[in-house]
């Protein structure tokens, strides 16, 4: 393993913002243009991004900026991709139910895209959409999932609102909040269910064949 060296100089006027951005990334994985514009503009500036990447690589991380989506995200450094203990250090393991909810949230995000500034859905409409896919979470499960998704800047809502009219803001970071193996498993379940329903509907009734033979 090569020696670790850190060669960077942060201007005094940027020192405080640099620290806050790094802590924000470590805390919530994402910095979003539409949520934290000041932080986003700082990190997305090439010279600052390089300094932050240099710093984060000391602990096995890196930062990636998707300017089209307005997302800065913490990722595992490619240099440490195969290092035991670091590979999954910033990966949150969602439950199967939470992955189902993420799929629904991302679908709603895509359906609402471009209709208005910001991407919002009411809690009532979201619950209707969730149950239409055969997912029936308890109130406690739903609230726990919402809190977790908010913590990692996948959605946002006011803690002081509740009920079906509560507005939930959906962020483009939803598309990056996946552990691919588990995503594939959950997606396959979704694909299999409609296919099974189609096969059941298309399957001939044995009694109809008997009548025809007679």
In a nutshell, what does this entry contain?
The protein is mainly α and 214 residues long.
Description of the structure:
- The structure is a single chain.
- 49% of the residues lie in helices and 11% in strands.
- The protein is mostly helical.
- The chain has a three-stranded antiparallel sheet with strand order 1-3-2. Strands 4-6-5 form a three-stranded antiparallel sheet.
- It starts with 14 loop residues before the first helix and ends with a helix.
Q: What value does the average pLDDT take?
A: 80
H/E element sequence:
HEHHEEHEHHEEHH
Rg over CA atoms: 22 Å
Structural class: mainly alpha
* End-to-end gap: 81 Å
Which ranges are low-confidence, i.e. pLDDT below 50, for 5 or more consecutive residues? 208-214
Strand order in the sheet with the most strands: 1-3-2
Strand content: 5-15%
Q: Which percent bin holds the helix content? A: 40-55%
Note the total helix count.
Answer: 8
Number of strands: 6
Layout: helices, strands, pairs:
Elements: H1 15-28, E1 30-32, H2 37-44, H3 46-56, E2 61-66, E3 71-76, H4 96-112, E4 120-122, H5 123-132, H6 139-151, E5 155-156, E6 167-170, H7 180-202, H8 206-213
Antiparallel strand pairs: 1-3, 2-3, 4-6, 5-6
Throw out a few tags for this protein.
3-stranded antiparallel sheet; disordered C terminus; 214 residues; mainly alpha
